[in-house]
Automatic annotation (TrEMBL):
The keyword Zinc does not apply. It comes from Terriglobus roseus. This is Imidazolonepropionase. The keyword Signal applies. Pfam families: Amidohydro_1.
Amino acid sequence: MRVSLRNLWRSAAVLSVLTVATTGVFAQAAAQKTIALVGGMLITGREELPINHATVLIQGNRILAVGPMDQVKIPAGATVIDTHTQTMLPGLIDTHVHMVLIGHGDYPTYFKWLDNHQKDYPLSRIMDISAEQLIDAGVTSAVDLGSPLQDILDLRTRINKGMPGPRLQVSGPWLTRHVAIFPDNYQHNVTSPQDAADYVTMLANAGVDVIKAHSGLTRDDYFAIVKAAHAKNIKVHAHIYEEESVRNAFDAGVDVMQHVGSAGLPPYSPALLNDLARSGRPVVPTVYHRAWLYPDTIQFPERLDDPQFKGELGEPLYTEMMNSFKNFPSLSYFQRVDREEFFGDKSIRQWIDSGTVVGMGTDNGTPANFHKDALWREIKVFVDHGMPPMRAIIDATRVNARNIMGNRDLGTIEPGKLADIIAVDGNPLYDIAALGNVKVVVKDGVIYKGGPKAEKNK
Ligand SMILES: [Zn+2]
């Protein structure tokens, strides 16, 4: 079993005097070192051909130089990571995650279990596990859409201070008029447009990065929510399915349409698709999490009991999660999956064919939709339906960074940008599933996975 990044961070935080000597993670950050990733193919995140046998030079937390390896000089003393036979690309970004969920099969059972195990499994521990799983899978940034407010703000702070995990944008509790089967502190029950606006202002003042408008909201609610959020300069993500809800959210100026087309509904009207495409506003269709996850898991149930879970979750959570999958086909989460499968292909094609801006997000943490593999599976569904692999990779990196997170410092590998870079085995342009074989993860100039042997053995 590999060393837990989280435990390394915790011990490093306690023994701060020794951190430079004992942990690669902290040594890298402290010394503003130079790192060179050398030899692999490079996908920059821009619309251009990959650079073969490339070198990426990092200094501190920024990218210093990029180019063919015979043209980029590596300074003496640089930490060199050999990426031959690999592909380097910008760190992946997932624009719909749930840090409080781990893929357990049944929400009511899971939340009751957490209630009964608060001492050993406080929410902070669950979220730290999710954070580690995401960074290990090459997800260097993510948008969390629905957690208790203080818990998720605290997680963002821990990660910003150096704990392994993706850079986070967080929404805190969502706003809804259909209270879901989640505990009360995950959601605010909207009673009027004014009430919705007041709640948005409260969240913005508390420090959230985005707002999540959940289901059942009226047209006036959307207008009130968007107005209040934009007054604070933050974006609104809407959880929407039906044509009328999408139209209301779109007209009100919602910035990101989440889930659209993924609930077993026929494709949207040409007028709505045309408006979405022409607006340039992104959709995040979250297609994999039921319509493809279900048949994949029925065909290959082996994916459910990855031994890595045992070390990451610990006991008794590991056993509890495995028990939740015992009768997988009967889980209530999948009871409408036949309709989703029926409309699935058309649903995806509508986005590819209309030219709508697509962001990649997974809703991960939902039943059997694991942090460790949700994003490459989501990307693969689009590629399997005709999206060019380069397009899909750019959607999961540059489009997610700029069009959704509003961050122009992320999403491409070019001099001056923040150093969030991963390397995967093989060529994802040939086989997109290569994105599931993450060998190197660098975030903010810090090596989280796959450093040179000498460093890992220190
Ligand atoms: Zn969600």
